[in-house]
Amino acid sequence: MRDWEAGEVRTLPLSELGEHYRRYRMPDTEAEAALGRSLSRYGQVSPLVVCLREDRPEVIDGFKRLAAARTLAGVRTLSVRLLVADDRTAKAAIYGLNQSGRSLRELEEAWIVYALVREDGLAQQDVAELMSRHKSWVSRRLALLERLAEEAREDLRLGLLTVSAARALVQLPTGNQLELLACARREGLSTAELRGVV
Question: N vs C: which end of the chain shows fewer Cβ within 10 Å?
Fold first, then answer.
Protein backbone atom coordinates (compact mmCIF):
# COMPACT_ATOMS: atom_id res chain seq x y z
CA MET A 1 0.00 0.00 0.00
CA ARG A 2 2.97 2.33 0.44
CA ASP A 3 3.22 2.94 -3.32
CA TRP A 4 -0.40 4.14 -3.49
CA GLU A 5 -0.49 7.84 -4.40
CA ALA A 6 -3.08 10.38 -3.25
CA GLY A 7 -6.06 10.51 -5.58
CA GLU A 8 -5.18 7.22 -7.28
CA VAL A 9 -8.08 4.82 -7.84
CA ARG A 10 -7.54 1.10 -7.25
CA THR A 11 -9.77 -1.95 -7.20
CA LEU A 12 -9.66 -3.72 -3.85
CA PRO A 13 -11.37 -6.80 -2.40
CA LEU A 14 -14.26 -6.02 -0.06
CA SER A 15 -12.49 -7.96 2.69
CA GLU A 16 -9.62 -5.44 2.70
CA LEU A 17 -11.86 -2.42 3.30
CA GLY A 18 -12.08 -1.37 6.94
CA GLU A 19 -14.99 0.46 8.55
CA HIS A 20 -13.31 2.14 11.52
CA TYR A 21 -15.02 5.45 10.70
CA ARG A 22 -18.47 3.87 10.22
CA ARG A 23 -19.42 4.90 13.75
CA TYR A 24 -19.80 8.51 12.57
CA ARG A 25 -22.58 7.64 10.12
CA MET A 26 -26.07 6.39 10.81
CA PRO A 27 -27.25 3.21 9.09
CA ASP A 28 -29.80 3.65 6.31
CA THR A 29 -31.14 0.27 5.21
CA GLU A 30 -33.45 1.78 2.57
CA ALA A 31 -30.58 3.64 0.90
CA GLU A 32 -28.38 0.52 1.10
CA ALA A 33 -31.10 -1.55 -0.59
CA ALA A 34 -31.48 1.07 -3.34
CA LEU A 35 -27.72 1.14 -3.87
CA GLY A 36 -27.71 -2.67 -4.05
CA ARG A 37 -30.25 -2.51 -6.87
CA SER A 38 -28.18 0.17 -8.61
CA LEU A 39 -24.96 -1.83 -8.25
CA SER A 40 -26.68 -4.90 -9.71
CA ARG A 41 -28.06 -2.97 -12.64
CA TYR A 42 -25.33 -0.44 -13.50
CA GLY A 43 -22.23 -1.52 -11.60
CA GLN A 44 -20.21 0.88 -9.46
CA VAL A 45 -20.61 4.48 -10.65
CA SER A 46 -18.21 6.28 -8.32
CA PRO A 47 -15.32 5.06 -6.17
CA LEU A 48 -15.36 4.88 -2.41
CA VAL A 49 -12.93 7.20 -0.64
CA VAL A 50 -10.45 5.63 1.77
CA CYS A 51 -7.47 6.65 3.83
CA LEU A 52 -4.73 4.40 5.13
CA ARG A 53 -4.82 3.69 8.85
CA GLU A 54 -2.03 1.42 10.03
CA ASP A 55 -1.54 0.42 6.38
CA ARG A 56 -5.17 -0.73 6.01
CA PRO A 57 -7.61 1.10 3.70
CA GLU A 58 -10.37 2.55 5.88
CA VAL A 59 -13.51 3.83 4.22
CA ILE A 60 -14.36 7.47 4.93
CA ASP A 61 -16.98 7.91 2.20
CA GLY A 62 -19.11 5.17 0.65
CA PHE A 63 -20.32 3.13 3.63
CA LYS A 64 -23.74 2.53 2.05
CA ARG A 65 -22.16 1.39 -1.23
CA LEU A 66 -19.89 -0.97 0.70
CA ALA A 67 -22.79 -2.39 2.73
CA ALA A 68 -24.81 -2.87 -0.46
CA ALA A 69 -21.88 -4.58 -2.23
CA ARG A 70 -21.46 -7.01 0.66
CA THR A 71 -25.05 -8.22 0.15
CA LEU A 72 -24.59 -8.98 -3.55
CA ALA A 73 -23.40 -12.46 -4.53
CA GLY A 74 -21.25 -11.50 -7.51
CA VAL A 75 -19.50 -8.43 -6.07
CA ARG A 76 -16.09 -9.14 -4.57
CA THR A 77 -14.21 -5.88 -5.30
CA LEU A 78 -14.88 -2.14 -5.40
CA SER A 79 -13.01 0.83 -6.83
CA VAL A 80 -11.57 3.09 -4.17
CA ARG A 81 -9.79 6.45 -4.26
CA LEU A 82 -7.04 7.24 -1.76
CA LEU A 83 -7.21 10.37 0.34
CA VAL A 84 -4.03 10.97 2.30
CA ALA A 85 -5.27 11.91 5.76
CA ASP A 86 -4.41 11.42 9.39
CA ASP A 87 -7.14 10.43 11.86
CA ARG A 88 -8.29 14.01 12.51
CA THR A 89 -8.35 14.97 8.84
CA ALA A 90 -10.24 11.77 7.98
CA LYS A 91 -13.00 12.70 10.44
CA ALA A 92 -13.23 16.21 8.99
CA ALA A 93 -13.27 14.68 5.48
CA ILE A 94 -16.37 12.63 6.37
CA TYR A 95 -18.07 15.95 7.00
CA GLY A 96 -16.59 17.68 3.96
CA LEU A 97 -17.30 14.88 1.49
CA ASN A 98 -20.98 14.88 2.44
CA GLN A 99 -21.70 18.58 1.99
CA SER A 100 -22.45 18.67 -1.75
CA GLY A 101 -25.93 17.37 -2.38
CA ARG A 102 -25.83 14.77 0.40
CA SER A 103 -25.99 16.08 3.91
CA LEU A 104 -24.96 14.57 7.19
CA ARG A 105 -27.53 14.54 9.89
CA GLU A 106 -26.79 16.90 12.73
CA LEU A 107 -26.25 13.96 15.07
CA GLU A 108 -23.58 12.58 12.72
CA GLU A 109 -21.92 16.00 12.70
CA ALA A 110 -22.04 15.94 16.51
CA TRP A 111 -20.30 12.54 16.63
CA ILE A 112 -17.48 13.89 14.46
CA VAL A 113 -17.13 17.10 16.50
CA TYR A 114 -17.19 15.14 19.77
CA ALA A 115 -14.44 12.81 18.52
CA LEU A 116 -12.25 15.71 17.40
CA VAL A 117 -12.68 17.63 20.67
CA ARG A 118 -12.83 14.88 23.30
CA GLU A 119 -10.87 12.02 21.71
CA ASP A 120 -8.31 13.93 19.65
CA GLY A 121 -7.94 16.86 22.07
CA LEU A 122 -8.54 19.69 19.60
CA ALA A 123 -9.84 23.02 20.84
CA GLN A 124 -13.31 23.95 19.59
CA GLN A 125 -11.79 26.83 17.59
CA ASP A 126 -9.39 24.39 15.89
CA VAL A 127 -12.29 22.08 15.00
CA ALA A 128 -14.20 25.06 13.59
CA GLU A 129 -11.24 25.94 11.36
CA LEU A 130 -10.68 22.31 10.31
CA MET A 131 -14.32 21.99 9.27
CA SER A 132 -14.66 25.56 7.90
CA ARG A 133 -17.43 26.38 10.35
CA HIS A 134 -17.99 28.92 13.12
CA LYS A 135 -17.08 28.03 16.70
CA SER A 136 -20.75 28.36 17.73
CA TRP A 137 -21.63 25.63 15.19
CA VAL A 138 -19.07 23.36 16.86
CA SER A 139 -20.38 24.24 20.32
CA ARG A 140 -24.00 23.43 19.36
CA ARG A 141 -23.04 20.01 17.98
CA LEU A 142 -20.94 19.22 21.04
CA ALA A 143 -23.87 20.15 23.29
CA LEU A 144 -26.09 17.59 21.55
CA LEU A 145 -23.91 14.84 22.98
CA GLU A 146 -22.58 16.32 26.18
CA ARG A 147 -25.58 18.13 27.62
CA LEU A 148 -28.38 15.89 26.39
CA ALA A 149 -29.61 13.10 28.68
CA GLU A 150 -28.73 9.57 27.55
CA GLU A 151 -32.37 8.59 26.94
CA ALA A 152 -32.92 11.72 24.83
CA ARG A 153 -29.70 11.01 22.88
CA GLU A 154 -31.00 7.53 22.08
CA ASP A 155 -34.35 8.97 20.94
CA LEU A 156 -32.46 11.43 18.75
CA ARG A 157 -30.35 8.63 17.23
CA LEU A 158 -33.50 6.61 16.48
CA GLY A 159 -35.28 9.60 14.96
CA LEU A 160 -37.89 9.74 17.75
CA LEU A 161 -36.72 13.20 18.81
CA THR A 162 -36.05 16.06 16.40
CA VAL A 163 -32.80 18.00 16.49
CA SER A 164 -34.64 21.23 17.26
CA ALA A 165 -36.39 19.56 20.21
CA ALA A 166 -33.03 18.21 21.41
CA ARG A 167 -31.54 21.70 21.15
CA ALA A 168 -34.34 23.00 23.36
CA LEU A 169 -33.86 20.19 25.89
CA VAL A 170 -30.13 20.86 26.36
CA GLN A 171 -31.05 24.17 27.98
CA LEU A 172 -32.39 22.20 30.96
CA PRO A 173 -30.58 20.09 33.58
CA THR A 174 -30.51 16.37 32.74
CA GLY A 175 -33.19 15.38 35.29
CA ASN A 176 -35.58 18.02 33.95
CA GLN A 177 -34.90 16.86 30.38
CA LEU A 178 -36.18 13.37 31.16
CA GLU A 179 -39.20 14.74 33.01
CA LEU A 180 -40.09 16.99 30.07
CA LEU A 181 -39.43 14.20 27.56
CA ALA A 182 -41.85 11.93 29.43
CA CYS A 183 -44.42 14.73 29.53
CA ALA A 184 -43.97 15.42 25.80
CA ARG A 185 -44.57 11.74 25.00
CA ARG A 186 -47.55 11.48 27.32
CA GLU A 187 -49.21 14.67 26.03
CA GLY A 188 -48.09 14.30 22.40
CA LEU A 189 -46.37 17.70 22.41
CA SER A 190 -45.07 19.06 19.12
CA THR A 191 -41.52 20.39 18.87
CA ALA A 192 -42.83 23.98 19.06
CA GLU A 193 -44.85 23.14 22.19
CA LEU A 194 -41.85 21.43 23.77
CA ARG A 195 -39.72 24.52 23.05
CA GLY A 196 -42.44 26.65 24.66
CA VAL A 197 -42.38 24.55 27.83
CA VAL A 198 -38.58 24.84 28.03
Answer: N
